[in-house]
Amino acid sequence: MGARGSPSRRRQAGRRLRYLPTGSFPFLLLLLLLCIQLGGGQKKKENLLAEKVEQLMEWSSRRSIFRMNGDKFRKFIKAPPRNYSMIVMFTALQPQRQCSVCRQANEEYQILANSWRYSSAFCNKLFFSMVDYDEGTDVFQQLNMNSAPTFMHFPPKGRPKRADTFDLQRIGFAAEQLAKWIADRTDVHIRVFRPPNYSGTIALALLVSLVGGLLYLRRNNLEFIYNKTGWAMVSLCIVFAMTSGQMWNHIRGPPYAHKNPHNGQVSYIHGSSQAQFVAESHIILVLNAAITMGMVLLNEAATSKGDVGKRRIICLVGLGLVVFFFSFLLSIFRSKYHGYPYSDLDFE
């Protein structure tokens, strides 16, 4: 006891207390409370993030793409904390919107989301969701979005950049193109698995059967195979299909047309020279066919030896077809290549 309460020990303790500055105890107490509060805030943030991820995983277990309204969008996408990427398709699927492009894009988006959901690499770092215009009008207004469909990537940290918006007009919305874009933005590689489609095989089998049956029925008279006019028509059909951009449509998978969900205006001609709609290729095909028909009539009027008045009428009709439809074709070209100086009849 003497050692414990000796005067020397008490004098040393008193000296240590005198060395502490006045008011240091409240400061230390405040610092301690601040550390406790920060630790509690961090713990609360971790618990909130865990709850959000758990909820998203539960929704993903039910369906590959979960729908969001304004409240869910702000809670799970806009509000922190977030350590996952979110792919959102902004669309207008309600029947009254009459957005056929939205339905086509939704099918490709569903294929992509299913490929991710049922892959071995599936994890809680990437989710797929959808915001319909009629269910999240406030979200469209908040993002200043006036067209659908639109695909956006919301990264785990920070705001989306320009590259986080998928260039649908230029690339198309095929599931493979979306997967490539997602890999560039998130480093998550998705192998797209499409459901089996036997329509092409069935169509080919029917075509072979039809040709084989026709050859069998006409086996005693196969002179039609050497018909130059028939082969010329087949060749022209192939040329029209290729020059109108059908192969580009097959590779890129663009929408048929574009409809603005706000004013209902439908665009059949894409405004950029780097892309096109399916309807645009059909229009170009018809125009090329009409121009070709006009050239055939002009040739017929020049080479035939019939009545002069009939030949004059054929020439005028052919010339009218060429001038009118070529002018229409040229106006479409000018609308896509801005600044093109040449024109014929002005359709703009």
3D architecture notes:
By secondary structure, this protein is of the alpha/beta class. It folds into 2 domains: 144 residues, 3-Layer(aba) Sandwich (Glutaredoxin); 110 residues. It is built from 12 helices and 6 strands. Strands 1-3-2-4 form a 4-stranded mixed sheet, with helices on both faces. It has a two-stranded antiparallel ribbon with strand order 5-6. Helix 4 links the parallel strand 2 and strand 3. Helix 11 runs antiparallel to helix 12. The longest helix has 39 residues.
Keywords summarizing the entry:
about 350 residues; alpha/beta; Glutaredoxin; two-stranded antiparallel sheet
SSE diagram, text form:
Layout: H1 7-19, H2 24-62, E1 65-67, H3 70-78, E2 85-91, H4 100-117, E3 126-132, H5 137-142, E4 150-154, H6 168-171, H7 175-186, H8 199-217, H9 228-243, H10 246-252, E5 258-259, E6 266-267, H11 278-303, H12 308-336
Parallel strand pairs: 1-3, 2-3
Antiparallel strand pairs: 2-4, 5-6
Helix pairs in contact: 4-7, 9-11, 11-12
GO molecular function: magnesium ion transmembrane transporter activity
Pfam families: OST3_OST6 (PF04756)
Transmembrane segments: 198-217, 229-248, 282-301, 313-333
Quick description:
Helix content is 57%, strand content 7%.
Mean pLDDT across residues: 82
Following the backbone from N to C, one meets helices and strands in this order, namely: HHEHEHEHEHHHHHEEHH
Overall tally of structural domains: 2
Distance between the termini: 108 Å
In DSSP terms, counting alpha (H) and pi (I) runs of 4 or more, how many helices?
12
Structural class of the helix and strand makeup?
Answer: alpha/beta
Record field, number of beta strands:
6
Would you identify the CATH H-level superfamily of the largest domain?
Glutaredoxin
Bin the helical content: 55-70%
In CATH terms, what is the architecture of the largest domain?
3-Layer(aba) Sandwich
The low-confidence runs, each spanning 5 or more residues with pLDDT under 50, are 12-20
State the major sheet.
4 strands, mixed
CATH class of the largest domain: Alpha Beta
Oligomer: single chain
Shape: elongated
CA-based gyration radius: 35 Å
DSSP strand (E) fraction?
A: 5-15%
Largest sheet: spatial strand order: 1-3-2-4
Instruction: Kindly identify the CATH topology of the largest domain.
Output: Glutaredoxin
GO molecular function, one term: magnesium ion transmembrane transporter activity
Subcellular location: Endoplasmic reticulum membrane
Pfam families: OST3_OST6
Transmembrane segments: 198-217, 229-248, 282-301, 313-333
